[in-house]
Automatic annotation (TrEMBL), chain B:
Gene3D superfamilies: 3.10.20.30. Pathway: Cofactor biosynthesis; molybdopterin biosynthesis. This protein is produced by a bicistronic gene which also produces the large subunit (MOCS2B). It comes from Drosophila pseudoobscura pseudoobscura (Fruit fly). Heterotetramer; composed of 2 small (MOCS2A) and 2 large (MOCS2B) subunits. The modification Glycyl adenylate is found at residue 96. This is Molybdopterin synthase sulfur carrier subunit. Belongs to the MoaD family. MOCS2A subfamily. C-terminal thiocarboxylation occurs in 2 steps, it is first acyl-adenylated (-COAMP) via the hesA/moeB/thiF part of MOCS3, then thiocarboxylated (-COSH) via the rhodanese domain of MOCS3. One of its GO terms (molecular function) is nucleotide binding.
Length: 361, 96
């Protein structure tokens, strides 16, 4: 059973222990919080407690539920808290728990007092001897204002109203998660760009000037996996026996033609599926149009999907910094279609109808 | 013909009960008060309004709020208020 109370009179500890004791329990654990008689050299005369009572009881009940969820063995739980004026050295809070074994009882009480100090809306004011001002205390564990869960700092990218914004940029509403994702994609893209530049730089910096540009790729030692072993009776200490480049710019020319391979593999399957093809085609075509891509209908469907995917990845990782992508793309096409939302007055309409009537009597 | 756009809902104002405890109660010199606010508002904006209205600026950075007896854990959250809702201004706790 849960015993929860906010009380105005002294807490009877013996009574509390009796409440939670049970024949089936080998352990009862009790915590008694008492008021101290001094704070920073000032003598405490008394303490005044106040609570947001309904909510405090609710939160205390929640603590009980949490305790039972964590230690299902618990038999009885008691949380009593004093309100009003409490003279020094009296119990202000009593927490007790009983369980078949001591571990659950002891841990539950510790957890409960920590939770109570952080979440139950009760406040304590210390009243001191002499001329010292009374003071509202603050638990270090107390729940504090949290504001920073929204990780995106909107203030760092203020919108410059004066600038003419490209028509291709639209304002979107997105939650933090989406924004974070977009920023991460942008980082990734940037990283990839920098990486590819680095590879090229590395290649060039290793080139001596007398090697002509045709052999450049072959002699580059970027991304090399080599096995080195000493030869018998060799004048040299070390000799390269084998070098394998599994990836890297030197291997570009050896890569299989993925596009070609794909077309070859899927050609037969696509042609047999002619009934569904027109529907697929029209849907894919509308997606392509929407994304500003052009393709021939007879082009391999896998390639077209791949292009769409690439486009999505590009757009996802694109920020205003990448405006040049828009400029070279064909996204400007639908310009003509945009309607002007001109409103006509009744008079204008009448004039228009009149004119039309005249034109075709 | 006249078209009325039903979607552009203007923010509706609601009357809520604001409760003050401990130091907040002393600074605001009241235990509860009726306060008119928009029905949808970010918790931090609501807290700012209350802080200004009730003279709590000295402790504003330590305050949290509880809406209908539940803590609003994150002040960036939007809260949706109805007439008669209870909003408690909660300074740092010191129970135990």
């Amino acid at each position: 059973m849960n015993h929860i109370k906010l009380i105005d009179c002294p807490i009877d500890v013996t009574y509390a222990i009796n409440l939670i004791s049970d024949p089936s329990c080998g352990a009862s654990s009790i915590f008694i919080g008492t008021t101290r008689d001094s704070f920073q050299g000032k003598k405490v005369v008394s303490l005044a407690y106040e609570a947001y009572e309904n909510m405090a009881l609710k939160e205390m009940d929640k603590i009980c539920s949490d305790l039972r969820a964590t230690w299902p063995d618990l038999k009885h739980i008691l949380i009593y808290h004093r309100l009003g004026t409490v003279p020094e050295n009296e119990a202000s809070v009593v927490i007790a728990a009983s369980a078949p074994h001591r571990s659950a009882a002891l841990k539950a009480v510790t957890f409960a007092i920590d939770q109570l100090k952080s979440r139950v809306p009760i406040w304590k004011k210390e009243i001191y001897e002499g001329n010292h001002d009374a003071e509202w205390k603050e638990n270090s564990e107390s729940i504090r204002p949290k504001k920073s869960l929204s990780s995106f700092n909107y203030s760092v990218c203020k919108v410059d109203e004066s600038r003419v914004v490209s028509r291709n940029l639209v304002q979107i509403r997105a939650n933090d998660c989406e924004l974070k994702n977009r920023v991460e994609c942008f980082f990734k893209r940037k990283r990839a760009e920098i990486n590819s530049c680095n590879v090229i730089d590395f290649k060039q910096s290793n080139l001596s000037s007398n090697i002509n540009s045709d052999t450049e790729v072959d002699v580059s030692c970027a991304r090399t996996q080599s096995t080195i072993s000493k030869q018998e009776q060799s004048n040299c200490h070390l000799k390269v026996r084998r070098a394998t480049n599994r990836c890297g710019p030197q291997q570009m020319q050896f890569r299989p033609e993925y596009k070609h391979e794909l077309s070859r593999l899927t050609a037969s399957r696509v042609s047999t599926n002619e009934v569904g093809e027109s529907l697929q085609n029209s849907r894919l075509h509308s997606i392509e149009t929407y994304m500003g891509l052009t393709s021939k209908n007879n082009e391999n469907i896998i390639n077209r999907i791949k292009n769409v995917e690439n486009r999505i990845l590009l757009l996802e990782s694109t920020s205003p910094e990448y405006q040049h992508f828009f400029e070279q793309s064909c996204m400007d096409q639908p310009e003509k279609k945009i309607k002007t939302n001109k409103t006509y007055s009744a008079h204008e309409l009448r004039v228009y109808i009149h004119r039309k009537n005249k034109e075709c009597p | 013909m006249v078209f009325v756009n039903m979607n552009t809902s203007r923010p509706v104002s609601v009357d809520i009960h604001v409760l003050f405890f401990a130091k907040c109660r002393e600074l605001s010199q009241t235990t509860r008060s009726v306060f008119t606010v928009p029905s949808e508002i970010r918790a931090s904006d609501l807290l700012d309004k209350i802080v200004i209205q009730f003279g709590l600026t000295t402790i504003r950075h330590n305050l949290i709020i509880a809406h209908n007896e539940s803590f609003v854990e994150n002040l960036n959250d939007s809260i949706f208020l109805k007439d008669g809702d209870e909003l408690a201004v909660i300074p740092p706790l010191s129970g135990g």
